[in-house]
Design goal:
Strand order of the largest sheet: 9-8-11-6-7-10
Shape: globular
Oligomer: single chain
Largest sheet: 6 strands, antiparallel
Radius of gyration: 20 Å
CATH class of the largest domain: Alpha Beta
CATH superfamily of the largest domain: Nucleotide-binding domain of ferredoxin-NADP reductase (FNR) module
Length: about 325
């Protein structure tokens, strides 16, 4: 049974298991999207050991020579040490604002570095300079904003989130590479109904996607469902209600699993709420962000309610465990 070493910690890898599935099983975040070797979001680098031929198919020769490979396609036959691939340029941005959105979520806004371009809903990989610890965070801003916005959840004993909350002050530099991900709005059909569903800080990319759609002149109905266990876990409710009041095609539904229901909200399992509230989802383009089990269940529910798999865009969030 081969082993995988990542950021100094070693994990067992089952026979026939991909590097991406192994890391996910152990609760370790690696950037990923399609899981089929097409988007190349999960490209990482072998620091020790040799990537499989299949995992390097379609990559440039210059990347192969540096041992870059696709984590979703690599089923290692030998022990490997891997690291995140900083294929895109690294950027430095000054932190200009830090604001709590609720007890566990912090809004961070930075300047936009020169020559940095992105699509609302994509994510960047933050790097802590002292030890090169790397974590992925979605952008809640749009290219029209004069800042980049991240919405960071404090993870219990989280090494990166704890550092961002407790030690990074306005005026400090933030280092990152990216952007990555294909969970973003395209203006192909401005009349198509959109469904945006997120849990926790899954709201961050959805907020960017929503505003980007409006900036691009989207006229079809846009339904945003944001869920938490109870009201204290929700955030930006006033801001989202104000946005909906200014746009007749925007419908915002704050959702809770139990306890009091916020004004204009719904109660129940978020997996069931979109189809329960809207009925058939045939013809919808959907964006799903948040905890992986919930995103997976939502993907299935949306498909059964009529959404084409080609119209389902998802961005599950995985948190690295303590010490990872």
């Amino acid at each position: 049974m081969p082993s995988l070493t990542f950021e100094g910690k070693t994990y067992d890898c089952h026979s026939g298991e991909s590097v991406l599935d192994c890391m996910t099983r152990h609760g370790v975040l690696l950037p990923s999207s399609c899981k089929a070797g097409a988007c190349q979001t999960c490209m990482i680098r072998a620091l020790k050991g040799k990537p499989t031929e299949e995992s390097q198919a379609g990559l440039k020769d210059t990347l192969k020579a540096q041992n870059y490979f696709l984590a979703c396609m690599c089923k290692p036959a030998e022990d490997m040490e891997v690291g995140l691939a900083a294929v895109s340029p690294q950027y430095t941005a000054r932190l200009i604002e830090k604001e709590p959105l609720n007890e566990t979520v912090m809004r961070l806004r930075t300047e936009v570095p020169d020559n940095f371009s992105y699509r609302a809903g994509q994510f960047v990989n933050l790097i802590r300079p002292e030890d090169e610890l790397t974590r992925s965070y979605s952008l809640a801003s749009t290219p029209e904003d004069d800042y980049l916005e991240l919405q960071v959840r404090r993870v219990p004993d989280g090494r990166m989130s704890g550092w961002l909350f407790d030690h990074l002050d306005p005026g400090s530099d933030i280092h990152f590479f990216g952007p990555s991900g294909d969970c973003f709005y395209t203006p192909a059909d401005p009349e198509q109904p959109l469904l945006l569903v997120g849990t926790g800080t899954g709201l961050a990319p959805l907020y960017g996607i929503l505003r980007e759609a409006l900036d691009q002149g989207h006229t079809g109905p846009i339904h945003l469902f944001h869920a938490s266990l109870a009201i204290p876990g929700l955030y930006m409710m006033d801001e989202l209600r104000s946005l909906a009041s200014r746009h007749a095609n925007v419908h915002y539904v704050p959702c809770v699993l139990h306890g009091d229901v916020p004004e204009g909200g719904a109660q129940g399992n978020i997996v069931d709420l979109p189809a329960r509230e809207l009925g058939s989802l045939n013809g919808y383009r959907t964006y799903l962000c948040g905890d992986p089990p919930i995103v997976d269940a939502l993907r299935q529910k949306c498909f059964l309610a009529g959404v084409s798999m080609q119209q389902i865009h998802s961005d599950p969030f995985v948190f690295a465990p303590t010490g990872a």
